[in-house]
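Question thread 4412

I'm putting together a teaching handout and wanted feedback from people who do this every day. The idea is simple: show students a protein as raw sequence, then show them the structure tokens that encode its fold, then repeat with a second protein so they can compare. Below is the first pair exactly as I plan to print it.
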Amino acid sequence: MTELLQREPLLKSVVFLRILIGWHFLYEGVIKLFNPDWTAFGYLATAQGPFRSLFIALTGEGTIGWVDTLNTITLIFIGITLILGIFEKWGAIAGMVLLLMYYFAHPPFPWLEQRNVEGSYWFVNKNLIELAALWVLYQIPTSSYFGLNYLLKREHKTIKTPQS
């Protein structure tokens, strides 16, 4: 694995993937933050599949505000960690959990009518694909190659000087 990570073209590709996915999450979070009319209510209220009752329970008057806020904060957190290359593994984990929830709120199972989703899929949709990409980012962290972690480690190394 170490030999694989020393291949610079691969690292550059994974960094590019990390930044693109980070941008997607950050954009989604910022759009929701600045849109006072946005709510997850419609998405959750039309949930299907085995966890339908759980998602519908999240639409309650006392919970939907929390759900909206946590969704927005989590999207922004994931975006920032992936773009800046700091706490990259935490961002990847949070992203995978969030995408798994999105996936199971509207699972692309062929026996379900596809409602409130883009397109018609069989088992695999964009949420599952992005989740798989985050799994790759978790497996191949690149923040020590390009990102704030890299800058902080580099700065840390230059600060240490041998004392006479």
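The second pair follows. I'd like the answer to focus on this one:
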Amino acid sequence: MTLPWHLYIMALVYLLAGINHFRSPRIYLKIIPPYFPNPKLLNVISGLSEIILAVLLCIPFFSKYAAWGIIALLIAVFPTHVYMYNNEKARMGLPKWILFLRMPLQLVLIYWAFQYTFFQ
């Protein structure tokens, strides 16, 4: 079975994002809401999840399960977008309108991943 080329683009996006969790952890630690315990561990889990899911997207047997995993991950990290929007220190100097647009972008990313959940 051949996977569509755009699935590989999605995999590359998540692979690079996952690697970035380890290259620049401070960025991610700033945006984890303080009510979540152990931000360092959450950053590692999130980064590893993105890397593993990216690899699994490229394996036909696992691709639809990986797409579901990406949807779950995008939902799980959504509180960071709300936190960034509401917290001056977490904004990293970004204008509020950009942070506001990131929230519906999550829905676009979820929809993109959903396209591969039924791929057989």
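Top answer:
Good format. For the second protein you could add a caption like this: The chain has a mean pLDDT of 94. The chain has six helices and no strands.
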